[in-house]
Specification:
Chain A: Catalyzes the conversion of 2 pyruvate molecules into acetolactate in the first common step of the biosynthetic pathway of the branched-amino acids such as leucine, isoleucine, and valine. The structure holds two protein chains of two kinds. By secondary structure, chain A is α+β, with helices and mostly antiparallel strands. Chain A folds into two domains: 82 residues, Alpha-Beta Plaits (2-Layer Sandwich); 66 residues, 2-Layer Sandwich (Alpha-Beta Plaits). Chain A contains six helices and nine strands; from the N terminus they run E-H-E-E-H-E-E-H-H-E-E-H-E-E-H. In chain A, strand 6 and strand 7 form a beta hairpin. Chain B folds into three domains: 195 residues, Rossmann fold (3-Layer(aba) Sandwich), CATH 3.40.50.970; 155 residues, TPP-binding domain (Rossmann fold); 173 residues, Thiamin diphosphate (ThDP)-binding fold, Pyr/PP domains (Rossmann fold, 3-Layer(aba) Sandwich). The radius of gyration of chain B is 24 Å and the shape is globular. The chains are: A alpha+beta, B alpha/beta. At the A-B interface, helix 1, helix 2 and helix 6 of A face strand 7 of B.
Amino acid sequence: MKKQWFTISVYSENNVGLLNRISGIFLKRHINIESLNVSKSEIEGVSKFTIVVNTTEKWVRNIVGQIEKQIEVIKAFYHTDEETIYQESALFKIASNLLFDERQIQNIIKDNNSQIVTVAREFFVIAKSGRRNEIDEMHEQLKPFGIMQFVRSGRISVTKSEMQISALLQEFYEEA
Amino acid sequence: MEAIKMKTEETKSKTKLKISGAEAIMHCLLAEGVDVLYGYPGGAIMPVYDELYKFQDKLNHVLTRHEQGAVHAAQGFARVSGRVGVAMATSGPGATNLVTGLADAQIDSTPMVCITGQVTRHLLGSDAFQETDIIGISTPVTKWNYQITKAEEIPEIMAKAFYIAKSGRPGPVLIDITKNAQFDEFEFSYKKCTGVRSYTPVPKPDPKALEAAADLINAAKKPMIVWGQGVILGKAEEELKALVEKAGIPAAWTIMGASAIDTDHPLNVGMVGMHGNYGPNLLTNECDLLIAIGMRFDDRVTGNLDTYAKQAKVIHFEIDKAEVNKNVHVDVAVLGDSKETLGLILPLIEENSHEEWHNEFKKKYEIEFKEVIEKDIHPTKQGLTMGEVIEEINKASGNEAVIVTDVGQHQMIGCRYAKFKKSKSNITSGGLGTMGFALPAAIGAKMGAMDREVVAIIGDGGYQMTIQELGVIFQHNLPVKIVVLNNDHLGMVRQWQELFFDRRYASTVMVNPDFVKIAEGYHIEAKRVSERKDLSAVVQEMMASDKPYFLEVKVEKEDNVFPMIPTGASVSDIRLK
């Protein structure tokens, strides 16, 4: 089976220790987590892990099964890139003088649909959201001018299809 | 906050008064029906032990001689009784000594709650005396774990712990309780947990899957059942037997499934796996339908997956969705509790018999009997065999005993030749293969089934890993029968060295002490048998005794266990010698 990119979405209770439990499942199989994001979800009190891995479908299916088995996990899914809308965010910290000396930088900011989030005496910060390749491209464009600091977030994604977590939780309360 | 995510039910034992966390733990244990627990005290769990002192008329705490002994005893208790085993230890080394038992219980799906003391809350993370991150350490080997740092959390978390341990596919839960939470007082009330919103213990059976499975079973010409412990955990022994008999299907078992159906049942065709029976292993690759029930296609069962039952359709009755299609691709998965799903499928099954196909198993058994079994249980050579000892125990117990085995050659021989009439009679460390399991597990097994004869069968290697638990047997005068099959070797490793490592016996020769004297040092009646003529009488004497009894049998030093599927080989390549 061919390796490909998968986005794993995990809806869970917000409990200390769950991250450890989930990361252990990848560790056991020597599967590298390419990116990880933990945030709140559309449901109050429910957390969402977004995990990106490059592996085979058989492995990702097994892993999602093992993740979903954890007591505090409500539901876990995996999707291919085609099935999701996904983005990453990046911050570029650049010396302030370049903003005035290098006219090109302003064009890069504009052309890449990015924003200046702060300007200080010594530096300014550009935020860019988008696909990985768009961020990489912008990085390439800015690199010749000197980047003081760079950081990129993990992938965040929503699926094109519906995620029926609320219905699932509702079922629990109705059975009570 | 926990409350909104849990379903609870009021219990009668409602006590509305301020009590300490430690006392609350006693009330939680009692509310969950606990009357025996195993453990070892220490600094961080002293408030709990102080309460155990006050509750000793209701809670029988057994002081093992090592925390590993406590956790295996709790496992033995749980396995034989179907109840939740409870073990207790202090922080640091006390807690880490539980880890092997947790891993064993996790892989063998044993319901267990372990309670560990922890340093007081404000010291957490400071590398305090006997502080260890047992939550971090135990995460991969527990079904669930939780650290309690406030006394108020105790009732809800304990209720959840017991619920999670025993529901669905059972497993071990570890609750770590900081010392301040044991001392602090709060208003106690207890509600049993009946549901956790993020956890579905038992999937609902799908009628379509049941129908599809029934169609395959009714159409099959050469069907074969392989059942595992899921049948025992689901209390589905009667349903399994009914299915086997109605459809006339030869049925084999994994070692964890042993004893769910009588050994002597005509359709019980024996054990699958590395040292299982010849017929069921070979015929796995000849059946047209493989019906797996409550088993997980462990590598010791399947051998090489690329050549495992490729010709057959596969049905998998399973409670744990994550096990389906994990190792073997299945055509129909019937999710749910085995008692429920087997009960539901039974009316859809047509009465049938597969005599010709069943005869294939009998023919293979004849071959195995001549080549292996006869030599094992009725040997004519001079040295004693492990098999003949088991056979004598069968005779003396009338196949009624609970057999507890450790790990290695004696375990495989024990599982192959011990005969069972009752379910929950074969207690062994299956998935983890934990040497040292048997002696403490036999203590728990005896306490979980006082009306039954419990025989621990142990090798000379594994025996010495937890030999200190003789102290418990002596102190509590527990009539456990201990049989050490002594070949002065780590026999199974030696066998592999002989077969696969050109007889380089690296560190497998054991220089053993006088085991009889050691048992006598614990005031346990002890005998040694080295000759065949004495065996039968001594085994009978042992089984007739109403006291603890130790028997060392000096067996042939270099016997091998056959049949055998070498690691990575196909079940078709099973060797008879």
